[in-house]
Amino acid sequence: MMDHCLKRPVYQQTLLSLTILAIILSTLQNAMAQTNGNRNSQSMTPTELQAFAKQVQQTASSQDPTKFRALFNWKTFINRTLAEFEQNPAVQQSIQPLRQQLESTYTGNNPGIDTELLGEIVNGADYRFLTMRKEQNQYKVIFRFLRPDWTLNYHALIVEKQPSGELKIVDIDSFSTGELISETIKWSLMPEIQKAQLSVQDKLNAEQKSRIQDQKKLFDFLNLSSEKGDPFQAYQQLPKQYKGRKTVLLRLAQDTIEKENHKKYLQVISVFRKYFPSDATVELLSIDYFILMGDYKTALECLDRLNASIKTVDPYLYSLRAGILIEMGDIVLAGKYAGKASEIEPNLLQPYMHLINISVMQSNFDQTIKYLDILKTKFGFSYEDLDLSELENYSKFTESTQFKKWQASQK
Fold first, then answer.
1. CA angle 355-356-361, nearest 5°?
2. Which residue ranges form the domains of the chain, and what is each CATH number?
3. Is 289 exposed, middle or buried (0-12, 13-18, 19+ CB in 10 A)?
């Protein structure tokens, strides 16, 4: 649910079908008019919103599942998941078991999206409050979600003030998937929802029956494996209103990655950016993609767009830039970005890893020892946990006076 996964691609020359591209271009404009719906949340002050964001971070860090679950308004979340189908009284009645199923998920110790997220944190993921904003009459707090393997995502927690005056999370916009988690859950439940709708189809009008068929086409498309069909061919059969969805375009992009079709990937993401010019989703996917491709210049361009889209300073992106610059051979500039990242967020591990590498490459072994000590005292990692053997000057480092003296002090 949270993130994209990449395999290592290679360049190929297959072109994207101009027919499909034309269809995308002609239909996305209409799709852009569709939204997930704006709620008229009670107003809240920046101070209130910031205090709540800090409470979320502290509760997540404490790893208390009961308190973390209490930060959400699950009734509103479930309403956002099912509201589209509950406009018709007959359908509303037929999907009652699904509503009850969702309600039971968020009672007691039953696992839900909150326990999934908290489980990631327990296993070492970092959940960090970055900024807050109001967009489309929704109050949001933006969190960086960083796994131990450095898989990056951002969450925009949608916050509403309750009649009691408390603030609660009512949904999560996951940047890496390009949709609200309530939407993700809705589509995961679509087979059951469709079964419930069809059980009362005699009480539906022609438009509602047609919508059921369209929803099935989208569900089938999103769940089509590349081994069992061509997503680009399946795309042509999609109803017009679904052709411009982020998840649809991302599925096409994923197919090009799986098939290692570079030119197709470039064309798909070009279309995505044309209609979602400030969206972080495709940049999160593309940074990893272009790094794996060895196209570091383009990876930096994606990083620039990602940085602009989140509208705040994230020290991890400085660290990520440092890693790309190391690959490009610009270790001086890489050192500046890694140093800045560690200065802004001293408890962020990754910049120190880069600084160790850079100091070895520059034969600045006093700095290497300094960062190795920080790595051990601050993060609990020892020299033996690292693999520096492929670094330039590694042998020179292990033969240096500084290293031998430091190594002796560790015994």
1. 95
2. 34-246 (3.10.450), 313-409 (1.25.40)
3. buried
d(CA 266, CA 355): 33
Once rounded to an integer, what is the mean pLDDT over residues 173-179?
93
- CA distance to 136, 151, 287, 335, per residue, from 294 (Å): 38, 18, 11, 20
**Residues 156, 140: contact at Cβ < 8 Å?**
yes
Q: Are 334 and 325 in contact (CB under 8 A)?
A: yes
**Order of strands, edge to edge, in the sheet holding 179-180?**
126-135, 138-146, 152-161, 167-174, 179-180
Give the chain's count of helices (H) and strands (E): 21, 5
**Integer Cα distance of 175 and 170 in angstroms:** 16
Cα 154 to Cα 142: distance, rounded to the nearest angstrom? 7
Global pTM? Answer: 0.87
CA of residue 277 relative to chain centroid, distance: 17
What burial class does residue 345 get, using C-beta atoms within 10 Å of its C-beta: 0-12 exposed, 13-18 middle, 19+ buried?
Answer: buried
Separation CA 388–CA 357 (nearest Å): 7
Token pair for 250: 């991302």
The single-letter code of the amino acid at 273 is R
Residue 15 above 50 pLDDT?
A: no
User: Which among 157, 142, 171, 143 is positioned nearest to 73, based on CA atoms?
Assistant: 171
Q: How many angstroms separate the CA atoms of 165 and 254, rounded?
A: 43
pLDDT at residue 12 tops 70: no
Q: Angle 197-202-205 (CA atoms, 0-180°, nearest 5)?
A: 80
CA geometry: angle at 14 spanning 9 and 17, to 5°? 120
